[in-house]
Amino acid sequence: MLEAQRTDGGSTEVCVIPENRQCGEVADIRRAEFAPGGSLLGCLRVSGRLVLWDPADRDAPPAAVDGCYTDFSWEEAAGPGPGGSFRLLAAGAPCELKLLEVEASTSASTCLRRVRECPSDQLLEAVRERDSSVSELQSVRVLSFAAGLCCVLLDCDWLLQLRWQRAEEEPQTLSCCRIQLTDSGRHDAVHHSVCRETLFVLSSSGLISVFSISDGSLLASVDLPAYLSSGPADDDLVSSPPSFSSFCLLQDVSGPSAVCRSPLSTSSPAPTTKRPGQPVELQLQPARPRFDLQY
Q1: Is the domain of 167 the same as that of 212?
Q2: Confidence (pLDDT) at 183
Q3: Confidence band of 119 (pLDDT split at 50, 70, 90)
């Protein structure tokens, strides 16, 4: 398994983690993420089991979080919090959020503390204030978590912003809105990313829909297959239309870049040809409400 993260200097740090008894089979891992500024690794398995461990400390046993989970996210921070702790927000079944504090020391077991919870009833209440016809929630995903502020996606329709205060038992609801996705777009969505109060939704057909997380309004749509085919004719591109499945946001000196990649081709194209297998960058211009594609 390989995990990469960018440093402030623009370089990329890569950690290669071998399959072993602590990590388990790589094919069984649904999601893996390092704690920002630390060496703790969270692994969510297909079974819903969430395990935390330090790959650099072979003597420390992994710690399993009680319960079954569908998603998680470390809190974005420059380094550990008070007492060398990290905070992690996990989405559990049925449709609830749990805020955990995690502490790890050399050759010692990872210590887990459940700090706060947001039950499904509170999430449902926030949605029902906007639409009383909603009777239950089916899913919850954590899109971002930074400085106590999180953004979660409910039932692929609703964007909810919560603030977790250390002195309060329950999180404060800041906003709740419905994103304007079509039925086909809702079912075809393969990845979601949040950056600068903007939600990016990537469909399997290569369409990126850009929404405001404050009111759910559609800001822009980017048709990547149309963009790729706008260059010089390419037989491989015509015979093998790209199928997009990966999407991430990279922070660099010029601003955040949304990068999409089709896994169908790994050959190196000529510099002037746009082909599947090559990254396409979507640059957010902070001073202007526009989105520019770069190749």
Answers
A1: no
A2: 63
A3: very high
**Do 124 and 22 have their domain in common?**
yes
Q: Taking the C-alpha atoms of 151, 156, 158 and 159 in order, what is their torsion angle to the nearest 10 degrees?
A: 20
Cβ partners under 8 Å of residue 155, min gap 6: 137, 138, 139
- Could you read off the pLDDT of 14-65 as tens digits, one per residue? 655 555 555 556 678 888 998 887 778 899 999 999 999 888 777 778 889 9
Q: Which residue has the higher pLDDT, 75 or 23?
A: 75
Does 129 lie in the same domain as 42? yes
Q: Do residues 86 and 24 share a domain?
A: yes
Please give the tally of structural domains in the chain. Answer: 2
Mean pLDDT of the residues in the chain: 75
- Per-residue pLDDT for 290 more than 60? no
Cβ neighbourhood burial of 59 (10 Å; 0-12, 13-18, 19+): exposed
Which domain, by its residues, includes 25?
1-178
Tokens of 105: 């020391």
d(CA 57, CA 203): 39
Quote the pTM value.
0.74
Domain boundary among 147, 178, 209: 178
Same domain, 127 and 191: no
Residues 102/86, Cβ–Cβ less than 8 Å = yes
Q: What is the DSSP string of 45-89?
A: ETTS-EEEE-TT-TTSPPEEESS-EEEEEEPB-SS--GGGEEEEE
159: its two tokens: 């964007």
- In whole angstroms, give the CA distance from residue 33 to residue 52: 10
